[in-house]
Design goal:
185 residues, mainly beta, five-stranded antiparallel beta sheet, 0% helix
């Protein structure tokens, strides 16, 4: 996420500018010993480091020595083993609550893993997408005419909730749906 960086030093003036990897950032002069700068989320989106410098205007200005700012990769709340329930709601034939377990891996916005539930009693692999907030994936059960499509509506480090649509268990063409929830194991 974006944040405000406090830079402490000496000799700052009202025209001093904080630079992030050489690029000027919106800077506020607090006093001769302190500046703040707006750092965008994109500046810290990937693990690595950035060099922070301060540019003071003429006369007598120039660029300060650089300081390294370490950027750590954010932990991904989806990665790991989960278990929970899903509830089918729309038809009298499929209605019920079923248990599921899944194991998620995430790499460059792609999720993959394995899924097993008590309705189908078969373990399958899946792939999908994760944008840092919302996960979308599909599970293809052998013998079923379509996929179970799942989308998260809430995701924390210990809770997952969402909605799904699936093939009609009575064999009709209309899809069924419901909600799912789970907790990290």
């Amino acid at each position: 996420p974006a944040f405000t960086l406090a830079v402490n030093g000496s000799g700052f003036v009202s025209g001093s500018v904080v630079r992030w990897n050489g690029a000027a950032r919106t800077t506020s002069f607090i006093n001769a010993n302190r500046l703040t700068a707006s750092i965008a989320a994109a500046d810290v989106a990937a693990a690595g480091s950035a060099t922070v410098t301060v540019f003071n205007p003429a006369p007598g200005g120039g660029t300060s020595n650089g300081r390294s700012f370490t950027i750590t990769a954010p932990s991904n709340p989806l990665v790991g083993d989960w278990e929970g329930t899903y509830t089918v709601t729309p038809t009298q034939f499929c209605r019920g609550t079923y248990r599921w377990t899944a194991s998620f891996q995430v790499s460059n916005g792609v999720i993959s893993g394995s899924w097993i539930d008590t309705f189908n009693n078969v373990q399958v692999s899946f792939r999908g997408t994760f944008d840092g907030t919302t996960a979308r994936w599909s599970v293809q059960i052998p013998g079923d005419p379509g996929t179970i499509d799942l989308v998260t509506t809430e995701l924390t480090s210990s809770l997952i909730e969402g909605t799904f649509t699936a093939p009609n268990c009575t064999g009709g063409s209309a899809r069924i749906g419901g909600t799912f929830q789970g907790n990290k194991r």
